[in-house]
Amino acid sequence: MAAPDSVGAVGLVLARPARLLGAEPFFMEFIAGIEERLTERGLSVLLHVVGTHDAETTAYRRWAARHLVDAVLLVNRTADDPRPAVLREIGLPTIVVGEPAAGTDMPAVRSDDAGAMEEALAHLLDLGHRRIARISGPESLLHTRARTAALLAGCSAAGVEPVVLEGDYSEESGAKLTAALLGREQRPTAILYDNDVMAVAGLNTAKEFGVAVPDELSLVAWDDSTLCRLATPALTTMSVDVHQFGTSVAESVLELIDGTPVAERWSPAAALVQRGTSAPAPTP
């Protein structure tokens, strides 16, 4: 049961277009994992979707002033992120989802984005790919930067020069940027995507260009979902147990609300699931 002085809610603000939230399975499964654990204690998630980080900060201040939540979850950490300082200033207990905030004692549930990227790249290199591209999420996000750094380091060690294009997780950017890559004089033989929606859009774009997947082009998605499994061919992906990730975050926030030490936790490790969109690189 919730504590006597609890308001019974944990806040989560997502600064992203609502249309993306509806199309992207990741956050729905993540929130489901959080809710499942919180419900056992009579708590729920107060979800607020806004368009900007300024609006996100306004929401935090309103929640704190009205005592509408017992704690908040801080997601999508960015470089020079002002939000941890704001949350510390207004006194909202916070669990960081991702890299801990420097200069604060906010507990975090971390993810090994670099290690996962190394595994995805190794898969493509082992298949003989040397013309490798990546369509990333927004470069301001710390987890995007961690993946990019791991990709560049791994490619450098292998003597490969990758192409990295910045997307926004949407179907539109996945299609547009894949088209740009396939329109190059020397197109890639493999493309890594930072989420499932962009990867499915990329697969459809390859079909429109008449590029055979996986015979001419290998594709690897991130965040396994029904979209990946139902695609034709089914997408090779870096799969994470997103539901368990949400449950782990809920465990941390319950410890924070209870005033007990918050255990160090990590997201379940991403693992490569090979399906029908990755194969040996085509011979020149």
What's the N-to-C terminus distance?
64 Å
- The number of distinct structural domains comes to 2
Main β sheet profile:
6 strands, parallel
- Known CATH architecture of the largest domain: 3-Layer(aba) Sandwich
CATH homologous superfamily heading of the largest domain: Response regulator
Q: How would you characterize this protein structure?
A:
It contains 10 helices and 12 strands. The strands form 2 sheets. A 6-stranded parallel β-sheet has the order 2-1-3-4-5-11, sandwiched between helices. It has about 280 residues and is of the alpha/beta class. It starts with 8 loop residues before the first strand and ends in an 11-residue tail after the last strand. Strand 9, helix 9 and strand 10 form a beta-alpha-beta unit. It folds into 2 domains: about 10-110 and about 240-270, 3-Layer(aba) Sandwich (Rossmann fold), CATH 3.40.50; about 115-240, Response regulator (Rossmann fold, 3-Layer(aba) Sandwich), CATH 3.40.50.2300.
Provide tags for this entry:
284 residues, single chain, alpha/beta, 6-stranded mixed β-sheet, Rossmann fold, elongated, 10 helices, 6-stranded parallel β-sheet, 2 domains
Q: How would you sum up this structure in a few lines?
A:
The chain contains 10 helices and 12 strands. By secondary structure, the protein is α/β, with parallel strands linked by helices.
Please render the helix and strand layout as text.
Blueprint: E1 9-15, H1 18-23, H2 25-39, E2 44-50, H3 53-66, E3 71-74, H4 83-90, E4 94-97, E5 108-110, H5 113-126, E6 132-136, H6 142-158, E7 163-166, H7 171-182, E8 190-193, H8 196-208, E9 218-222, H9 226-230, E10 236-239, H10 242-258, E11 265-266, E12 271-273
Parallel strand pairs: 1-2, 1-3, 3-4, 4-5, 5-11, 6-7, 6-8, 8-9, 9-10
Antiparallel strand pairs: 10-12
